Amino acid sequence: MSKQLIKKTYYCPIELTIDLVGGKWKPLIMVFLREKPRRFGELKRLIPAVTEKMLTQQLRDLEQDHLVERKVYSETPLRVEYSLSENGRGLGPILDAMNEYGSRHASQYSVEMQSLDFKRPVTSQASTTPSEAQPTSAQEMPIESEAPLN
Fold first, then answer.
1. CB of 16 within 8 A of CB of 6?
2. In this structure, is residue 130 part of a structural domain?
3. DSSP assigned state of 117
4. In a domain, 10, yes or no
5. pLDDT band of 137, cuts 50, 70, 90
6. How far apart are the C-alpha atoms of 114 and 144, rounded to whole Å?
7. What's the whole-number mean pLDDT along residues 44-61?
8. What pTM was computed for the model?
């Protein structure tokens, strides 16, 4: 878990969720990882306003919190890919709700929306086996903050 979560007492599951995915960049990173595994440079191109230092830190936090998996390939040059973990994929409905809310209310806040290359992953509920089933609500997701540190 991130250092901020190690010895914290949570009084509401929403508080934990905000600690895990809150911030300016984590939700965007997770949205782009929903589509497919991506390399660092690809994420940087998709989110041009994020600095390399901040993207690195956010990816590390997401990995420590078991929302993103980092896979290192033994190749020359070294290749690293990031993908959503099972816990990270379980946040899909939350990301969808945030996207829908922002789309519906952008005009109320007089903000300009620049279109990003955002696509929802194509999934079929009928082809999902019970062992592959994703949590459908925050209530089904684990909220323990005692996970071991990597």
1. no
2. no
3. -
4. yes
5. very low
6. 37
7. 96
8. 0.72
Kindly report the CATH number assigned to the domain that includes residue 79: 1.10.10.10
**Distance in angstroms (rounded) separating the CA atoms of residues 26 and 2:** 13
Q: Are 17 and 10 contacting, i.e. CB atoms less than 8 angstroms apart? A: no
Number of helices and strands in the chain (H, E): 6, 2
Those residues whose C-beta lies under 8 Å from the C-beta of residue 95, and which sit 6 or more positions away, are: 27, 30, 31, 34
Q: Is residue 150 part of a domain?
A: no
Which pLDDT band, with edges at 50, 70 and 90, does 117 fall under? low
How many separate domains does the chain show?
A: 1
Contact, 46 vs 34, CB < 8 A? Answer: no
Tell me if residue 80 falls in helix, strand or coil: strand
Residue 54 lies in a domain: yes
In which domain, by residue range, is 63 found? 3-106
- CA dist 59 and 50 (Å) reads 12
